[in-house]
Amino acid sequence: MSHGWRVVAFCFLAAVFTWGLGVFGASVYLHEVTRARGWSVSLVSAGITVFYLTAAIVLPAVGAAIDRRGSRSVIAGGAVLLALGVAAMGHVTAPWQLYAAFVCMGLGYATMSVIGLSATIAPWFEEYQGRAVAMALTGASVGAMVVVPLVALSIARHGFSATTTGAAAVAAITLVPLALVVLRYRGPAELDLGRDGAVSSRGR
């Protein structure tokens, strides 16, 4: 398997956690926080709006950051922020803490959204770029079908705080080391490769 497909596999995994704990997990947090804290649905749902607004504001800069710094540091940092937001969600005691947690999650989601993952995959493929991006983004559906039910089951068995802490730890321990190992600062050029796994002229 060429290294480009390893990048696709990582992006698939990133999408599983990002959509599972971020986008689709938000509905779980809405229910649990309103129940645990007695806050109104409108107050908590405003935090979800903050999540999407944060991501929307940051998204235009994500592709540029990946172009300048490479996807390794951007996505590893995003994974840490996503994990911090998820972990904090189960421990909030004031509305501002809730909104801060959603800001962290929004920043993490922005780095591993469609734009972030597509920008990470694009340097590795030409002929198979569409297929590679589509395969990576199927992780979003897996996140909805697998991660969200697991989170709900864990909350029922272990409680909200323990579940968000554990889920955040799993996400960070999985994504950060893999990002540092699999992703490259200068893309395929760092391995003397061209797009679609071709050997670059320098590597011949």
CATH topology (fold) name:
Growth Hormone, Chain: A
Count of distinct structural domains: 1
* Percent of sequence in beta strands: under 5%
What is the annotated CATH architecture?
Answer: Up-down Bundle
CATH homologous superfamily grouping: MFS general substrate transporter like domains
Which shape, going by the Cα principal axes?
A: elongated
Uncertain regions: pLDDT < 50 for 5+ in a row?
Answer: 199-204
Measured on Cα atoms, how large is the radius of gyration?
Answer: 18 Å
Strand elements, count? 0
Helix content: over 70%
Summarize model confidence as the mean pLDDT: 89
CATH class: Mainly Alpha
Please summarize the sheet with the most strands.
none
Order of helices and strands: HHHHHHHH
* Global structural class: mainly alpha
The N- and C-terminal alpha carbons lie at a distance of 19 Å
Number of helices: 8
Overall description:
The protein has 204 residues and is mainly alpha-helical. The chain has one domain (3-184): Growth Hormone, Chain: A, CATH 1.20.1250.20. Helices cover 78% and strands 0% of the residues. The chain has eight helices and no strands. The chain has helices at 3-23, 25-37, 41-69, 71-89, 95-111, 114-121, 129-158, 160-182. α3 packs antiparallel against α4 (71-89) and α3 (41-69) runs parallel beside α5. The radius of gyration is 18 Å and the shape is elongated.
Chart the SSEs and their pairings.
Blueprint: H1 3-23, H2 25-37, H3 41-69, H4 71-89, H5 95-111, H6 114-121, H7 129-158, H8 160-182
Helix pairs in contact: 1-5, 1-7, 1-8, 2-3, 3-4, 3-5, 3-6, 4-5, 4-8, 6-7, 7-8
